[in-house]
Specification:
Blueprint (H helix, E strand, L loop, with lengths): L1 E6 L3 H16 L3 E2 L8 E6 L4 H20 L4 E6 L8 H6 L5 E3 L5 H7 L2 H12 L21 E5 L1 E2 L10 H5 L3 E2 L2 H13 L4 E5 L16 H9 L6 E5 L8 H9 L6 E3 L7 H7 L5 H14 L4 E8 L6 H14 L3 E6 L7 H5 L6 H24 L5 E10 L2 E5 L5 E5 L8 E9 L4 E4 L9
Parallel strand pairs: 1-2, 1-3, 3-4, 4-5, 6-9, 9-10, 11-12, 12-13, 16-18
Antiparallel strand pairs: 7-8, 14-15, 14-17, 15-16, 17-18
The chain binds S-adenosyl-L-homocysteine (SAH).
S-adenosyl-L-homocysteine binds next to strand 12.
């Protein structure tokens, strides 16, 4: 019996899909990259922007013929399209979905599949497979194989009320997972060969603050840092208001914690930030960036920016542009504002920046960031930096520096899961190339 998982959206969804996959494997299912040959299809969805929601619905529509050809196929819709309570209108719109699961919860699917009658039908169906098997749907990225880098959700949900954001409505209130559970999971991943762990939360710095019996994020990082065989620890996403000095110092001093911070600014204008209810000013964000750079030498910083928020004037956008030019972040994840059902901005504000203008602002930031990233990367040229290699893509090994820079190396040796100091020989805005030291299997 085979299963197929399609994942869209954030790293939290990637982590959730990994949990579903291991749950299915414990029931005896094996992964396939061909939906047409699967007995169980999981669609793990995202609705953070309208485009993501449209993609999920399109994908769901494309499964209708598969289900018609094979009524024993089990379709599981999961993630933020479903949310914490499945809306009736979703059930009406997609009657061929067998199981609806909230984000981060493989439970409903596993419970459904372990019912005797479903189990019998699935086994039967596997025996008499027929023509619909090779139905052509796009291949997903391989989610299987030897995982070098894994994600662990540590804070579920979110209770911060950014006016544009649908996540709190779909993932529910903020709750931290027990530290023991996280550490056990990390140890088990390391035993399976994982070398790098990324802790996830909408505001990951708030880990433990909702439960006095738990350590805070610094405490959790300290415990994880002691796990033998684990090479690297990362965490995301941060919020400027919750990054304490203690946390910054821990990142600087804990040997396995990587000097890479993901801390969205969203806008570089105080009025827009206030309308977004982000809870900080541009000046406070600037000071945080300065502090990060002082306390954590060589730190790389990624940010998120939304352009075209309701009421954003050309001048306010210019403030964002100028701030980005000035702060020179390593990465900027850019998004064009899209109103999301139920959010404060969708209910109370007018989406008044025209689509073409949003696109224009997006492109301006994209161009600017391309130059900034190229300039930052150029400083790596000729340097020798340790890279953790993850997978081979065509004839090149793909890995990352501690600062999360993508590095490619040509080698015929098996570099998977190894940390090797390499010399950077070429840099561009999105990646770098490097050479292995002599004697490690490099192509000289
Ligand atoms: N708590 C996470 C949120 C993840 S959503 C974080 O702070 O990163 C990822 C990004 O999507 C957000 O940072 C924001 O830049 C963008 N985003 C969220 N809602 C959006 C919307 N309605 N329109 C456009 N972009 C949005």
């Amino acid at each position: 019996m085979k299963y197929y998982v399609w994942t869209e959206g954030c790293q939290m969804n990637v982590a959730d899909s990994q949990r579903v996959s291991s749950g299915l494997e414990s029931l005896g299912y094996t992964a396939t990259t061909r939906p047409g040959e699967a007995s169980v299809i999981v669609l793990n969805t995202c609705v953070v922007r309208q485009s993501a929601e449209d993609k999920a619905c399109g994908r769901l529509n494309s499964l209708a013929p598969l289900k018609k050809a094979n009524p024993n196929l089990v379709i599981n819709l999961m993630g933020c399209l479903v949310g914490i309570r499945t809306p009736d209108k979703l059930k009406e719109r997609f009657p061929y979905v067998d199981v609806f699961s909230p984000p981060s919860d493989p439970g409903p699917l596993l419970a459904f599949l372990t019912q005797d009658e479903v189990r019998a039908r699935q086994e039967d169906e596997t025996r008499q497979r027929h023509a619909w098997m090779d139905e052509d749907l796009p291949l997903p990225a391989a989610e299987h194989g030897h995982l070098v880098s894994a994600h662990i959700p540590v804070v579920l949900g979110c209770s911060h009320a950014c006016t544009y954001c649908i996540i709190p409505y779909r993932r529910g209130a903020e709750r931290s997972r027990p530290a023991m559970e996280i550490i056990k999971e990390a140890r088990s991943l390391v035993r399976q060969g994982v070398k790098e762990i990324t802790l996830l939360g909408q505001i990951v710095d708030r880990y433990g603050l909702d439960d006095p019996s738990l350590p805070n994020l610094t405490g959790l990082l300290t415990e994880l840092n002691a796990i033998d065989g684990l090479e690297r620890i990362r965490f995301l996403t941060s919020h400027p208001n919750w990054m304490t000095d203690e946390l910054l110092e821990a990142v600087a001093s804990l040997q396995k914690v990587c000097p890479h911070i993901e801390v969205p600014i969203q806008a570089g204008d105080d009025e827009v930030l206030a309308n977004m209810k982000r809870g900080y000013t541009v000046e406070q964000y600037r000071r945080l960036v300065e502090k990060l750079r002082t306390v954590i030498p060589g730190v790389s910083i990624a940010t998120d920016i939304i352009v075209g928020f309701p009421g954003e004037t050309a001048e306010q956008f210019q403030h964002t542009h100028d701030l980005l030019a000035d702060l020179k972040m390593d990465v900027a994840h850019l998004a064009r504002y899209s109103p999301r059902e139920g959010t404060v901005s969708a209910r109370r504000m007018i989406d008044d920046v025209p689509a073409e203008e949003k696109m224009r602002r997006f492109r301006l930031l994209e161009d600017l960031q391309e130059h900034i990233a190229a300039e930052i990367h150029a400083r790596y040229l000729g340097q020798t930096v340790p890279v953790l290699f993850e997978e081979k893509v065509k004839n090149r090994w793909r890995g990352r520096t501690t600062t999360n820079k993508l590095v490619f190396v040509e080698s015929s040796a098996d570099l998977r899961g190894r940390v090797i100091p390499v010399q950077i020989t070429w840099t561009g805005p999105w990646s770098m190339q490097a050479r292995l030291p002599v004697g490690t299997g490099g192509v000289e």
